[in-house]
């Protein structure tokens, strides 16, 4: 199905469905403010599920560097908003959710009254520019709706959004001097040369169109817009901040800075003037397109034909209700519900829809393509999301996940390198992090039978991707069985990740009956053994000549051959073969003790400072929940004789790492990966090795849940004798029959039925 | 008809037609080298008639400024080539023909052997870079074909082109170190910030695609390409000349400078390496598109499916033959034939086809449009070309001219200002020069009945254009009847041009029966009277308060209220009502004397220096043929009692201003306007006031001619008793009947027939 009628009508149907279903209002439990303080890197603004527009306040615009020196604070503003800030610069239309690197922040709008100021000003001295002070007391953040009072201007700002259109509603005081500022230079991860080109046309007195091309994290990224005002513009203008331009005949013929309808340049900001009466609302519809201003306008007309702000807000909240109620949980705790449904909300933001209502999108080859039979998505933070988010989609959003695979295959087809995406956004490959984890997502979908796409073509894409010798040490890996530490800085973690990815390819090949590929990649999947140093019991950097590196600190994350993790944590990274890992590390008992140490040791202070992307709270002993490579570790007790320790640890992690508060996330949410971990773990099981059909049991943290599956079936999670201290699972029944293993399979869930957990405060064997 | 099968097949048909017709080979008379020395600003390279590709050698790449100071030499290189230069930098794919301002020069290619150098080097020290010395002895320039030996490398370079594809053929010596350099920074009118963005993909070992976006004279201009090699690339690479780029994950994962298939940035140059045997030919097909790399490839496949260089060369020369033979002339003089057919050639270069083979093109709104039922053209140098070139097209290329009008109407529809083009190229309005002369082109087509377009829509576009008050003093003109000299620098010439343009609108309205518009614009057309100072007998700058400016020099072109002309010349600019002008200037006798002075006076030296765009040879007395405002002046004797002086003067101008030599043009050819003047005048008549259906008689300079009209009819020009000294016309018969007036009408020509001139060395009355 192609989304062609806009979210509006879709949402109306869903609202009807929701009412029929008689489900509780779940939108009330979504707290977008969770994670906006410190390291969560979420944003509080308005977005539709998987929507192209993320309309959200930015509380500062930090340049990437000041006087040629990298500005560390830029990292804080990955999502544009930090809860502790006292000013709002404006509301921009694109944001990543929870990332550890940044971009976007396009098309910042702020309503003002008084003298026109066309620079943002500073947090310390907001009146030097256009930004406004605000208070959290006057702030409301809901799924699909955000409201704040801009104290300086006495303007109430309200935001909502459909998939492709941001909808602003500003309530002004009486003023002869009211303005809408459109800052076309503002952006996240901004630096001097980020603005490549900006183009704006005032088509008539209520319509403005244009585009912005940036060279940021995405190297060649263009976003087109159409902006419609509910009230005619009285006059307008702009200031050009570019150093200079070539001669054009404009000079002498026109004053381009005022009421001239076609502006283009590297850097400029525009304003639109109005007279307002007391309490007058000026509304703005701001539509995006990856392709053209014509298509942006088409998207606007399709998704928000009128000016009824309340209706659009209700529609998008109904759309959220429909997504949230795919899992209904039982819990006495409001905070638990808030944590759960906010996690669901965060899981359903990225990847985003990246095509117009007619299916047009820009490919990585910079040509315009049409998505034929699928919704095209972008923002693939795959190093994070292959772990739990895509498996979660395979379970609860299988249609979308299959479309995401199709989007990745389109990327592969259009890629000059003939590779599946590594970390891609907006028709760009940013090559971030390591591995080729697309293959995990493809294999997981194939193994679980969620293939509306051509599985043979997908397997071929996996093989081609894993054969591109010039990619990040891959040639060495293929030849030697490991990436030598004299060739790349992250040689060990990359070797481990390649080995896991290769196992995924083998699983897909097996499912598709290709024994040759299966055997070849199963062999490659054992390459993790080549970086294990039995003399110390850890994975360890190894030179091209086969020798292990001497200088080596298993606790340090600095230049030890690993990315976002130390040897201690990364040595557990054999998710596809824990049994062999355990044998290699000395057997079950020793391994369980080793795991115990991880969670309980006291990490010397000096190591905290060098741990990326997380707050101190994000570390438990030496276990770093805020960094993804550890996400499966707590479940590894299941392969020892002490599975009850998995149950204990995961309940402890849930409690320590997720709270319903602005600082409720201990690390970057990473496009929903942290949230997906929370959801799985709260429900009582987790996909330790995507590409397998097994979900390994933990300890459900709620009183029960029902999964409303896309195939029409339901899978019920019954939790008996649930209490805070009853973290241990005494017994499990599947459809009334005792379950004599520590995992359930994908098909057992998809077939519908019931799993019953019996909880206890004492662990069994 | 939409051109959809490519020039190839069209050309084949035309070749067949030509053979049937039994016409002499006219391509032999085309000397593209004419005008390449000094001020002609033509280029010698290969282009198809009205083709999108102009593949031509550039002999220097002058930056717009050096150390922040404007570099005067940039003007010399409007067409990239100056005959006196000793080195060729390379061959680029886009060139204006004959302009006085510049842009383009996209995608410069040069074949080299030996060490790779990725900078152009200097004329004084070519070996410091990649450029090569060359000699005119080893140079051949024909219509659609160019050949030169690159002495430094011992490489023969041959170029030909279809409408959308440049075809290179390089004959190499034996070398293990042969290269094709693709300079993606080279350009005409280059300055530091011209390069906005450049994108390149090596799709496979014979195909490269990409695009280049520049901020030059065209502010937002993007050209897409597809480049195909006849031999697989052995290896490739690039050097990035940009200051820096933001972090992308490339770093550490890839060496982007060598064999990495996707490069993007502000400024880089690429190379492709080969091994060649002695005499081995490497061929390159280089296709352009205004829209996408996909479409560039489509254009390539449609227009040059194979690799037969000779065949493509023959096809394009057949296409030229077909255009040239639309007028066959009789002349004993080879030089006259060369002047004539080179003028035809230069007239049929601009405007250029600006759409893909499927009709797609980029509009001025930066959206992709499809030309529905017409060929879309760009490069409208209208201040020049409305005078004689478009009237010439109305006569001999009516289909193309109507399509050009459609292209201008599409521009109007897509323009944010709702104006017809002023000077437009490649989806940009550069606003160059003055007036709104599009209306002349539209009115001329309407009045002459050459309307495949909606004439009512065209009239509406003219009216809207002439009503945009904020354009270049137009509001003042509408209110006061003239542009005050305290408001713009070219107040007088602009007033005169507006008045003429308004008369054109009136003529179109009359033809379409709109009396109200006719009356209104006829009134506006008299506004030239408002800047005439009867006390001195010249047009003169006037202040807002109605007073004429005191400080005023009728001979100077510097800051006197005129553009490209002094008061002396511009005071004759009432082409639509010479009779009234004559009365205003004191009657026929005084006016004729005044004209005599113009052609015979001795202009003090100091005024030469300030005369733009022409060589000293371009000035006859105080008459400046190289600047267009004078082009009708010699014909004004027809309104006095001394029409024989028109005959005398035009023959003299033809002789002095046009020669078959590199320096054969005394001023910029201006996209064919100078050439169109030559053609009309040589044939014996000239459109003094486009928008009227009258061609005023001069003195035919050849022995006879036949116009092969598009409607299938022929119009024969018979010249009796032609000799060099027989410049006077004794008698004229039209279809055997004496012609008792000094003009013929458009329909008299289009109906077919014969005009007979009887020449004499003595003037009659």
Keywords, separated by commas or semicolons:
homodimer, 765 residues, alpha+beta, Beta-galactosidase, Chain A, domain 5, GH92 mannosidase fold, 2 domains, nine-stranded antiparallel β-sheet, six-stranded mixed β-sheet, 20 helices, 40 strands, 27% helix, 23% strand, globular, disordered N terminus, hydrolase activity, acting on glycosyl bonds (chains A, B)
Task: Describe, in plain words, how this protein is organized in 3D.
Chains A, B: GO terms for molecular function: hydrolase activity, acting on glycosyl bonds. Chains A, B: Monomer. Chains A, B: Keywords: Calcium, Glycosidase, Hydrolase, Signal. Chains A, B: This is GH92 family glycosyl hydrolase. Chains A, B: Its cofactor is Ca(2+). The structure is a homodimer of 765-residue chains. In chain A, a hairpin with a 5-residue loop joins strand 23 (360-362) and strand 24 (368-370). The first copy, chain A, folds into two domains: 31-324, Beta-galactosidase, Chain A, domain 5; 327-760, GH92 mannosidase fold (2-Layer Sandwich), CATH 3.30.2080.10. In chain A, strands 9-10-11-12-20-16-15-14-18 form a nine-stranded antiparallel beta sheet. Chain A has a six-stranded mixed beta sheet with strand order 21-35-36-40-37-38. In chain A, strands 7-13-19-17 form a four-stranded antiparallel beta sheet, with no helix packed on it. Chain A starts with 5 loop residues before the first helix and ends in a 5-residue tail after the last strand. Chain A contains 20 helices and 40 strands. In chain A, helix 7 (389-396) packs across helix 8 (398-414) and helix 12 packs antiparallel against helix 13. Chain A is globular and about 80 Å long. The longest helix of chain A has 21 residues, at 491-511. Chain A has 765 residues and is an alpha+beta fold. Chains A and B meet through strand 14, strand 15, helix 2 and strand 18 of A and strand 14, strand 15, helix 2 and strand 18 of B.
């Amino acid at each position: 199905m192609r989304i062609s009628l806009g979210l509006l009508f879709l949402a109306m149907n869903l609202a009807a469905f929701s009412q029929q279903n008689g489900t509780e209002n779940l939108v009330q439990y979504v707290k977008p403010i969770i994670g906006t303080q410190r390291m969560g890197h979420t944003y509080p603004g308005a977005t539709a599920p998987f929507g192209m527009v993320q309309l959200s306040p930015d509380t500062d615009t930090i340049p990437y560097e000041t006087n040629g020196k990298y500005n560390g604070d830029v990292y804080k503003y990955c999502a544009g908003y930090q809860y502790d800030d006292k000013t709002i610069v404006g509301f921009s239309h694109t944001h990543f959710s929870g990332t550890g690197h940044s971009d976007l922040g396009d098309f910042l709008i702020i309503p003002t009254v008084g003298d026109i100021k066309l620079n943002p000003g500073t947090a310390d001295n907001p009146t030097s520019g256009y930004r406004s002070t605000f208070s959290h007391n006057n702030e409301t953040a809901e799924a699909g709706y955000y409201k704040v009072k801009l104290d300086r201007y006495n303007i109430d700002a309200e935001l909502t959004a459909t998939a492709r259109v941001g909808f602003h509603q500003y309530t002004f005081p009486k003023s002869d001097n009211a303005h809408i500022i459109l800052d076309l230079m503002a952006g996240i991860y901004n630096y001097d040369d980020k603005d490549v080109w900006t183009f704006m046309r005032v088509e008539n007195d209520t319509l403005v169109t244009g585009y912005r091309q940036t060279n940021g994290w995405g190297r060649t990224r263009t976003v087109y817009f159409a902006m419609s005002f509910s009230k005619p513009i009285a006059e307008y203008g702009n200031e050009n901040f570019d150093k200079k331009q070539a001669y054009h005949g404009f000079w002498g013929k026109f004053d381009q800075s005022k009421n001239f309808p076609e502006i283009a340049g590297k850097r400029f900001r525009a304003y639109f003037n109005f007279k307002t009466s007391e309490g007058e609302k000026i509304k703005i519809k701001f539509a995006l397109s990856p392709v053209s201003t014509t298509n942006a306008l088409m998207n606007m007309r399709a998704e928000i034909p009128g000016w009824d702000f309340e209706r659009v807000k209700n529609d998008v909240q109904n759309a959220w209700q429909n997504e949230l109620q795919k899992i209904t949980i039982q819990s006495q705790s409001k905070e638990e519900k808030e944590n759960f449904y906010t996690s669901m909300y965060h899981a359903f933001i990225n990847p985003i829809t990246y095509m117009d209502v007619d299916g047009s999108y820009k490919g990585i080859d910079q040509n315009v393509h049409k998505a034929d039979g699928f919704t095209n998505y972008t923002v693939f933070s795959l190093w994070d999301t292959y772990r739990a988010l895509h498996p979660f989609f395979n379970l609860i959003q299988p249609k979308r996940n299959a479309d995401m695979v199709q989007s990745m295959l389109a990327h592969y087809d259009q890629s000059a390198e003939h590779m599946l995406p590594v970390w891609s956004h907006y028709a760009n490959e940013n090559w971030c992090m390591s591995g080729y984890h697309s293959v995990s997502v493809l294999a997981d979908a194939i193994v679980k039978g969620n293939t509306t796409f051509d599985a043979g073509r997908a397997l071929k894409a996996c093989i081609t991707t894993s054969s591109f010798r010039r990619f990040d040490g891959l040639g060495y890996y293929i030849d030697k069985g490991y990436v030598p530490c004299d060739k790349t800085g992250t040689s060990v973690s990359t070797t481990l990740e390649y080995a896991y990815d290769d196992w995924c390819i083998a699983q897909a090949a097996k499912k598709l009956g290709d024994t040759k590929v299966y055997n070849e990649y199963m062999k490659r999947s054992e390459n993790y053994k080549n970086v294990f140093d039995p003399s110390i019991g850890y994975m360890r950097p190894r030179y091209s000549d086969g020798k292990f590196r001497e200088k080596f600190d298993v606790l340090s994350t600095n230049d030890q051959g690993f990315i976002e993790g130390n040897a201690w944590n990364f040595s557990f990274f054999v998710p596809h073969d824990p049994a062999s890992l355990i044998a290699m590390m000395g057997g079950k008992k020793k391994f369980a003790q080793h795991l115990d140490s991880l969670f309980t040791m006291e990490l010397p202070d000096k190591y905290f400072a060098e741990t990326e992307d997380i707050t101190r709270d994000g570390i438990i002993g030496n276990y770093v929940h805020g960094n993804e490579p550890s996400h499966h570790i707590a479940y590894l007790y299941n392969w020892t004789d002490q599975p009850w320790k998995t149950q204990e640890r995961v309940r402890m992690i849930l409690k320590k790492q997720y709270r319903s508060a602005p600082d409720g996330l201990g690390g970057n949410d990473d496009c929903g990966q942290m949230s997906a971990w929370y959801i799985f773990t709260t429900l009582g099981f987790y996909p330790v090795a995507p590409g397998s059909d097994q979900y390994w049991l933990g300890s459900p943290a709620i009183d029960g849940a029902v999964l409303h599956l896309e195939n029409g079936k339901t899978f019920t999670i019954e939790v008996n004798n649930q209490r805070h201290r009853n973290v241990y699972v005494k017994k499990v029944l599947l459809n009334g029959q005792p379950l004599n293993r520590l995992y359930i399979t994908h098909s057992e869930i998809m077939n519908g039925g019931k799993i019953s957990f019996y909880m206890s405060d004492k662990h069994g064997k």
